[in-house]
Design brief:
This protein has one domain (26-92). Helices cover 76% and strands 0% of the residues. The chain has helices at residues 3-9, 29-92. The protein is rod-shaped and about 125 Å long.
Length: 93
């Protein structure tokens, strides 16, 4: 390739890019507060719902534990009565 062919293949494009202020409008304080505040309130509401759901689930588990404790106490009381009756029967002999 000759030097003339190489220079013909190279094309130089020069352009000036200007940025105007119209492309970047200023955000007012009210818009900024809304843009930040609304997602924060949404997230807070979702977290509140999750915490409420977890509290309800743990309350149900606590109730089940209380019911099991009452059942075990009743069973233990019944076993104690049976053992007392057998001991009394042995003492009578």
């Amino acid at each position: 390739m000759s030097l003339a062919a190489e220079t013909e293949a190279i094309v130089t494009v020069r352009a000036r890019i200007t940025v105007r202020a119209a492309h970047f409008p200023l955000v007012t304080n009210q818009q900024l507060y809304l843009a930040i505040g609304i997602p924060m309130l949404f997230n807070a509401a979702l977290i509140g719902l999750v915490v409420g759901l977890m509290n309800a689930k743990f309350s149900a588990i606590d109730k089940r534990f209380d019911d099991m404790r009452d059942l075990w106490r009743a069973e233990l009381h019944r076993v104690e009565e049976v053992l007392d009756a057998r001991l009394k029967h042995l003492e009578e002999r």
